[in-house]
Amino acid sequence: MKRFFLVCSFFCTQVVFASGDLPSWQDTKTKAALITFVEKTTKQGSADYIPPEERIAVFDNDGTLWSEQPSYVQLTFAIDRVKVLAPQHPDWLNKQPFKAVLEGDRKALSEAGDKGLIEIIAATHAGMSPEEFHQIVLDWMKTARHPKTGRPYPEMVYQPMLEVLSYLRKHGYKTFIVSGGGVEFMRPWTEAVYGIPPEQVIGSSVKTQLIVKDDKVNLQRLAEVNFINDKEGKPLAINQHIGRRPVIAFGNSDGDLQMLQWTSASRKPSLGVIIHHTDAEREVAYDRQSHIGKLDQALNLSKKQGWLVVDMKTDWKTVFPK
Signal sequence: where (predicted)? Predict the structure, then answer.
């Protein structure tokens, strides 16, 4: 019997699930290990049985659930916002990194580094209520397209990972996103695309302030960074927002290293999974030298830690939904 997963947001894409678990995965040791772990932790009477309330699975987003190449989706969004807002900020014409964005100077933008990126995001994501920002994100998603495939960004999700999310939830696991991306950039669409509701999304954030005026109470986003949910920040955020150590953690880069370590450090059974981008033909092949999604330390430690490394080229039958 066939099962169906519906990706619905600003469009609907019906993805057919063939019979059996994880149909877009090749029948490799990787798939077998995933299924074996889930079965042994959810079967009553198993020595490795984990009660439903403790079944927490966390997923990085960029590069783990959807494509992060040739640039982070939120960075593309922020660059587009610079262009939209530029008429209101004439000083940006002579101020970096905004000048680089408006002139299409990729070299200067790259040289601005993380500091420049944070400055761009702070300037383009602030001065509005969360509800207004929510709508801006949705409106952008309607028309924005991936530069290589021409697909809407919600179609740049990984079909095998959609199946993992569905499979885990079917077996009583609660699935959370724990991403370095902005939490309020993700929340408008994660439920429609991944089946993960806003309250199960953890990410980086800007500061907000409460404004009371004429008996009206609102929140306003500020151009100040509140929290960067990356590297060591991920375990801290999981502890603060979820309050349980995960049983399963999926990542794809060194930014997920501490989350993987914390998940597997002292809890058995536990499962750490790394998505290794090895498929240059169907997606992009990158790891140790990449300036986006660099995978070096985590890959080195994967064997010692017993983490599962998913080889995208050999373990996945398909990459994106058809």
Answer: 1-18
- Residue 319 CB contacts under 8 Å (≥ 6 apart), including other chains: 158, 159, 160, 279, 282, 283, 312
Q: Which two tokens stand for residue 273?
A: 């999974």
Residue 278 main-chain phi, psi, to 5 deg: -115, 0
Provide the pLDDT confidence category of residue 7 given band limits of 50, 70 and 90: very low
R_g of the chain, CA atoms, integer Å: 20
Domains delineated in the chain: 3-70+154-208+227-315 (3.40.50.1000), 73-143 (no CATH)
Tell me if residue 22 falls in helix, strand or coil.
coil
Cβ-count burial 122-145 (b if 16+ within 10 Å, e if not):
bbbbbeeeeeebbebbeebbeebe
The number of CA neighbours under 13 Å toward the Cβ of 78 is 23
CB distance 255 to 231 below 8 Å: yes
CB neighbour list of residue 307: distance below 8 Å, 6 or more residues apart: 260, 264, 271, 272, 273, 274, 298, 301
**Structure confidence at residue 20 as a pLDDT band (50, 70, 90):** confident
pLDDT at 61: 98
- H or E element, residue 24: none
Q: What confidence tens digit (pLDDT) does each residue in 70-93 have?
A: 999 999 999 999 999 999 999 999
pLDDT of residue 11: 43
